[in-house]
Amino acid sequence: MAEHPWDEVKEKFNAALSLSVKEREMYLKQLSTESTELHHNVAEMLAHLKDAEDDGFLDSLKIGKQTEADLAETIQLNLPTIDVKDSHPETDSICTLSQMAEIEESAYIGEIGDYQLIEQIGRGGMGVVYKAHQKKVGRTVALKVIASGSLCAPEDIARFHDEASAAGRLNHPGIVAVYDAGEHDGTHYFSMAYIEGESLAIHVGPDKQKLEPRRAAQLMEEVCRAVQYAHDRAVIHRDIKPANIMLDKSGQPLLTDFGLAKLVGNEGLTMTGQVMGTPNYMAPEQAKGQQELISNRTDV
Asked: Does the predicted TM-score (pTM) go above 0.70?
């Protein structure tokens, strides 16, 4: 259990965000049997987050020079947000393959530093991901921006930058590359390669198209080599699941979303008893919050 009640609420809230719509309903139902108060707090936070998204998350980022009315119109016309009722069950992990294509100026919805935002392509427990154009080098990237507001505590900012640091030290064809990290007008961000494709989650579930066994084995071999590369550099992912394995247009799998990554030897942000990860994909020691037992085997 967390040391403070608020810490436990945040843990449960972040865990709920990492789940698909159906999994989240089951998770909240189970939570209600454990603690009525905890269930109420988490459900209320999820509702507030949905309201904030409907009101325009961009307003809180201080981006662009539009008036409130202009920004609202831009969002309505150019920024398709993720509808939790219709979105893919595993939309939390989004990345891309680097592109150099020309983008019309009218497509931009605002700016953060050197990045011109084009559209929102994902939302997770730690923040929001945008498709963006990096002006200095003229490339399309995925820009992850930390969520602002009362949940943005110093430890959240530190963990956000830890994600960029963990992924940034990895240079492997099977891992989504991190280009840059920084802060602009109080908004923390990092940019990644933009992968144009879908996650492996499109093949998981009773109504999904299954992979041929040989193809599945080939994909897993490539993913395992990428994971081994990370382990050799003291990085434990801690959230390996279909949604965090992107398939680019050529079918190449790429491991992404190091938001829960653990750098071996750096235990500063994780306390024993904290449960971090996606419930359906956790190893037993992870589900029990036994942080001292987490190792390379947890990913395996």
From this structure: no
